[in-house]
Protein 1
Amino acid sequence: MKLLSIHRLSVSRFKLPVLPAILAAFLTVILPVILSGQILACTMLHCARAEEAPVPLIFDTDMGNDCDDALALAMIHALQSRKECELLAVTITKDHELAAPFVDCLNTFYGRGHIPIGVCRNSGKTPDAGKYNQVSKITDNGKLRFEHDLLSGNNAPTAVEVLRRTLAQAQDASVVVVQVGFSTNLANLLASPADAIAPLSGRELFAKKVKLVSIMAGAFAPIPNDQGVLGEHREYNVAEDIPSIKKLVELCDVPILWSGFEIGLNLTYPHQSILQDYRYVTHHPVAEAYIAYIPPPHDRPTWDLTSVLAAVRPDRGYFELSNPGTVTISDDAISRFAENPQGKHRYLILKPAMAERTREALVQLSSQPPEHCGSSQPAPNHAR
C-alpha cells in the first residue's frame, strides 16, 4: 500500500495520482519518439556506411601465367556484388591472344561480359598460351562451355586505348589501379601523348584520375632460394619487364602500395576450397583454371589476391603498412625500399596473427557465387 500513499502526495500544484497518466503518456508517446529518433540516427549512420561509393577499379593482369590472377578477378567480382568496388576495365600484359578470351569468359560467367578489355600487342612478354587460358575454348556438344563473345585478343583494343578512355571518363582522384602482372601497360600509358580520347598526356591523365596503384611486385623481406638460403629475390613481375617497372616508379605521381613476394607466399590458398567451394555449378572457370595450372593437392600462394584485398578493403586490419618511403628497382630486378617521410610508396606487412583471418577473406571472396550464375550481359563491342 506504500505506492498508493505515495500517489496521494502532492508535487508542486499537481497531485501525484496524475503521475501514472503522465508516465503512461511518456511511455506511449514521448519515449517512442525519442527512441525512433535514435533508431533513425543509427539507421542513417548504417546506411551512410553501407552506401559508400564502391571503389572504381582497373585490373591489370598477366592472365594465364599463374592461377592467382583468375582467383583475383573472381574476388573483384565478389566485391563488386557486395557493392565494395566497380570493375571499370581489365587490361592484360600477357602477349597471347587467348588471355583476353579467358578474361571475357570469367567476366561473362559473373554476369559482367560488358566490361572493356584491353591487350598489349607485340611486346613479346610471355607469348605462350599459358596453362589454363585454353579453358575459354572448351566446348561441350559443339557449344562453348563458358559463354563469352571475345574469341581472340586480336579483336580487342589496345590496353593504352582502354586505359585512356576509362580514366578520361572517371572522376578526378577516384580510380584505384590494381596491377598484378608486368608494368608494361602502365608504363606505356604514362608515356602516351595527348590524343582524341583525352587532351592530357598519359602521365597527366594518370595523376589527375588515379588515387592509388596497388601492385603485386617486388620483395621486401628475405626469400629462401632453392637451397633454402635467405636473400634478395628477383620477383617475377619485376624481372619480366624491368624497364617498364622502372618507368612506372619514375613517372607515377600517385601513391603506390606494394604487395611483395613474401606476402602471398605466406598466404597459400587451400586446395580443398577449389575441390569443394566451387561446386555450386557443374563447371566453374576459376576451379578449372586452378586445376589446369597445377592439379590439387596443391596450395598455391595468393600473390595477386592480396593486392586486390588491400586496394578495396584498406582499413580492415588484414595487413600492416610500412612507413612511407621509396622503392627502387635495380638492373638485375631487385626491389629495394628506403624510408622517406615524403615518399609515396609503402609495402604490405603480414603479421603471423593476421594470416588466418586474411586467408579466410581471400577464400570466401574468391569462391563467392555470382549473383546470376553464368549469366551474360548484352554483348559488348570489344573492338570499339
Note: The radius of gyration is 27 Å.
Protein 2
Amino acid sequence: MGRDNVIVNRWFSQKERFADLMNGCLFQGQQIILPEQLEKLDRETDLFIPGKPGTEMIQGKGIQRYRDVAMRWEDRAELAILALENQERVHYAMPVRTMIYDGLSYAEQIEENWKDRKDTGDRTSRDEFLSHFRKTDKLYPVITLVFYYGSRPWDGSRDLHGMIFPEGAGCEREGLRKYIPNYRINLVDAERLQDINVFQTDLQYVLNMIKYRQKKEKILEYVEANRSYFQRMNMDTYQALSVFLNSEKWLEEISVPEGKGEMDMCKALEDIYEDGKIEKLREQVSKKLQKGKSLETIAEELEESAETISQLAKELSAAEAAAEKNNL
C-alpha cells in the first residue's frame, strides 16, 4: 500500500469523519449513523473455500482481500457493515472489485453464523448442513462507498451491466440482460459533489478545497472566509489534504512545523500565493525587458511601483550574469 493511500485511509478511519461521510452520502446529512455506534473492523478479509469430497480440490483454497476502511454499525439490534474504498484514479473494473469485497463479507457472515451454531450445539437439517446456513439465519447488509478524488470525471462503468453491455455497442447478448444480476457501485465523485453542506465535520472544508483545487485564487478566498478553522488545522487533515490536492503539487511546498499537532494553513497559503505572484511578475518583466522597454514603461503597463520593477530587473540581471559565468 502506498504512502498516500495510508494517509487517506487513516484520515477516514476517524469515526466522526467516517460517520459524517456515510450520513452525507446515504442519508442526505441526517444524523442516522452515530460515531459511538461504529466499531472498526480488521481490513483484511479472509475466506477459505473447501473443496468437494471426492475431487482434487478437497483441500480447498483461500481468498484474501484488503478493504481500505471498514466498520461495523450497530444501531440497537440492527447491524450493518460499512466500507470505504478510496480511489485517486478511475478503476474500470470497480463494479467487479466491490462485488468481490462485498461478497466475501457476506460469505464471512455465513461462516461466523455456522461457527456459532457449532458452539451452541444447535441441531440442523441436512439442507442447512449442506448450506452452512440455517433457514432462520439472516445476513446484515454490506454497504461500500467508492470515494473518488481524481481530477478528471469518472468515465468508468458504475455497474456490472455497464461492463458487460457497453453503451451504444449493439450487443447480441442484450437479451440476456434480465437474467444477469446487476451490481452497482456507490460512487462519491469528490470534486463534483453538488451539496457539500450536508457534511458537518471538517470533511466539508476538505471537500470544498478539492472542489476549488484547480483555482488557487478561489482556494485562498475560501480559506480566508474560514480562517478560524484553517489557522488551527490538525496534521492528519493537512496530510490528507496534501494528497487530495496532489495534482496541483503546490501544497507540498508548505513546511510542516516539526513536533506540532496543528498548523496555520492561512499563512502558508498566503506566502505561497505571494511567491507565485512574484514569480509571474518576474517573467512578465523579463519578457518586456527583452523587447527593449524601459523600467518606467514596464511599471506603468504592469501597474506596479517603479521600486518593485527596478528590484526585479536587478535580480534578473544578476541571475543572467551568474548563468553566463557558469557557462564559461
Note: The chain has twelve helices and nine strands.
Protein 3
Amino acid sequence: MNSTLKEIALMSGGILSVGSDSSLFIDNVVSDSRIARDGSLLVAIKGDKSDGHDFVANVISKLKAGALINKAYYESSLSSFKELPNLILVDDTIKALGLLAKRYRNTLTIPIVGITGSNGKTTVKEMLNSICESEFGVGNVLATEGNLNNHIGMPLTLLKIKPKHKVAIIEMGMNHSGELIYLSNIVKPNIATINNIMLAHAGNFNDLEDIAKAKGEIFSGLMDDGEAYINQSSPYQNLWQNHPGKNIFFGKPGSICYIKYNDTGSKFTLDGVLGEINCELKVLGEHNKLNAMTAATLAIALHCSAKNIQYGINNYTGYKGRLERKNAFNGALIIDDSYNANPDSVKAAILAIKDLPKPHWFVFADLAELGEFSKDSHAEVADFATKNGIECLLSYGEESKITYSVFKGAKMHFCCIEDIVKYCFEHLPASATLLVKGSNSMNLASFVSKIVK
C-alpha cells in the first residue's frame, strides 16, 4: 500500500483526529507495534491477552506513523488519545481493516490466487510461490506469510501488495461457516481452489459435507471473469460449481492437469494441457504429490511454463513444522510435523515415514476442535498407527489418552512436555525416526526445540 493518511481514512470509513498530517505517507500496515516503523499504520486491535490501543501513544510519539483506533477510546472522558495526531477513528478496527483491504484490492490489476482446504493449503501456496518465483522473478511474487490467513492476517497480507508484484497468492483459512464469504469478498480472487476436504475444525460442523459447503464459500467472491479450479476427484465437486466465475477442472485424465504416472518414492509425472512434466519431490509424503498437482494447476492458470512448473516443484524444500527433517541430540531423525494436525493429516504423516529408518517413534498430542468426533478420531489414530509401523507411542494431552489406551505397542502417556523431553533423552534410540504431530495449541514445537542437536 502506498497512500496518504487522508486517503486511508476515506478508504477505511474513518475520520482523522485533530492535528493530523493528512499528507503523511503510509506504505506499511501492521497490527503489531513492535514492527511499526516510519510510514506504518498501526491497526489497534483488542485481543484476548493484550489491547493494541495500549501501544498507540508510543508509536505515534516516536515515529512518523499513523494508527487506526476505535472511536470509543478517543471519545472516552479519560482518553489521552485526544492529544495525539495521525489517528484514524473508526467504529470497529477489524471491520475497518477489512474495508480498507477490500477497497485497496479494487485498485489492483495483478492476478490474485485464493487457496483454501482442510489440509495442505500452506504447502500448495508455498509450492506455487516456488513456481511463480521461477516464472516471474524473486521479489515479484507476494504470498501469505506464516498463518496470516484469517480475518486479520489476510487483509494485512493484501495491503502488502506493491506495484512491483506481478501475482499475489493468498491463503484463506476458516473454522466456521460464513468466514470464507467475508474473506473471499475482500480478496475477490481471479483464480481460486479448494485443496481438499477433511475432518478439520469438525467440532463446528455436522459432517464433511458441511465442511465442504463452507470451503466452497471461497468461490463466492470470485471476479465475474474469475476461474474456480475444481478437483474432479473430490466427492464434493458438485457443491462448488455455482458462483460468479467459470469452472475449470483438474485431477483426472482429460483435465487441465492430473497425475499420469505415480512412481514409487518421490517421483511422479503430471500431464494435461502443457504435456508431461516429470517431477521429483524433496519433501516427504504421497499427499504432497497431490499438493504439487494443485500447485501446478494454479501455475497453469497463471500461464507459467512447464519448465518453471517442474523447477518450482522439484526445488521446493518444505516449510517450517511440516514434515521437516531435523537431527535429534543423539543423531536420531526427527520429522517435525508439529505445526498443526487433524485426523487425516496425522495418517498422512504416519505413511510419510514408512521408508525411513526404524524403529518408528511417535510423539502425538491432542487434536483440537473436533467436538463430538474427538473420541472416535483419537481412537482411529491409535489403530492406524498400530497397523502402519509405529513401534512406540508417546502421547500427550487429555484427548490423546484415548489414543494411548487403544494403541497396541510400546507406549507412554505424559502430562507435560518436559517429561517427554526427559524420556527421549533417556530412551530414544539413535537409529530411530521420531515423528512429532499434534494441534498447534499443544505447542509441540517447543518439544522439538528442546531435543534437536
Note: Residues 121-136 form the longest helix (16 residues).
